Amino acid sequence: MRVIAFYSPKGGVGKTAAAVNIAYLASREGCSTLLWDLDAQGAASFYLSGAQPVQGKKLSKLLEGTAPIAKFIEENVYPDLDFIPAHKSFRNFDIKLEHEDGNGVLKSLLAPLSEDTSLVVLDCPPTLSRLTEQVMKIADQVYVPLLPTWLSMNSWDQFREFVADKKLGIKKLRPFFAQVDRRKKLHRDLVDRRSELFDNALRATIPYSSIVERMGEEGLPLEVLAPRSVPAENLRGMWSEIRHDLWRKGRRVVVD
């Protein structure tokens, strides 16, 4: 079982849209995938179920062991795609982790899924916290969307310093530019300089587009909503890079 996370220290940068679409693309290739919405705002629920988002369950029941993680999973939202929706109690995840006094709580919660799940996609809240530390420890790769602005670049530098200071695995961080508007000179310049600015950036970028905003309205991944759109095409390219990151193979990922 591989675990990837989508994280940003800033909200509104396309993190959840990327997480949902990558999870869908993985499942479409026969990769048994679980998307866990760790962000109490529950944006992933809107992207998957539109105006009637699925309601998650209280976090305490999971951490206390009174309910197994399987009880929290919405199965087969799409073929081979399971989903753990957010709940407002997820705001207290960090407090619960402090009380549990365990660095491996998140890892132990996911462990029962390892036999039936090939890929776990974590959609993380935009905080630097105990939960963030645990996500960084268990994730094989962490994908960080950035706006092509200097303010966003500054946030990236701060996050990178946090990961380095905590020894959480700086090499697993893979930034990528999102909401790119090539009409803007700064956007073009930063995107064109990404190999200079980053050690390990994804080649794929996600353009600014109203079709991405419609995901929440329609409750559909882009591959279903607008597969011929430029953002959908770029996300397919991103999935190809991520697949190579995880399995180092260019072929389809099929679970036996």
Write the layout of secondary structure elements.
Layout: E1 2-6, H1 15-28, E2 33-37, H2 43-49, H3 59-63, E3 74-78, E4 81-84, H4 93-100, H5 105-110, E5 119-123, H6 130-138, E6 141-146, H7 150-165, E7 173-180, H8 185-192, H9 194-197, E8 206-207, H10 210-218, H11 222-225, H12 230-247
Parallel strand pairs: 1-5, 1-6, 2-4, 2-5, 6-7, 7-8
Antiparallel strand pairs: 3-4
Helix pairs in contact: 1-2, 1-12, 2-10
Provide a descriptive summary of the structure in words.
It is a single chain. The protein has helices at residues 15-28, 43-49, 59-63, 93-100, 105-110, 130-138, 150-165, 185-192, 194-197, 210-218, 222-225, 230-247, and strands spanning 2-6, 33-37, 74-78, 81-84, 119-123, 141-146, 173-180, 206-207. It is of the alpha/beta class. It has a single domain, classed as Rossmann fold.
Average pLDDT number: 88
The largest beta-sheet arranges its strands as 3-4-2-5-1-6-7-8
Low-confidence parts: 249-256
Strand content: 15-25%
The major beta sheet can be summarized as: 8 strands, mixed
Helix-and-strand structural type: alpha/beta
State the helix count.
Answer: 12
Task: Kindly report the name of the CATH homologous superfamily.
Answer: P-loop containing nucleotide triphosphate hydrolases
Architecture per CATH nomenclature, i.e. the level-2 architecture? 3-Layer(aba) Sandwich
Q: Which features does this protein show?
A:
alpha/beta, Rossmann fold, 8-stranded mixed sheet, globular
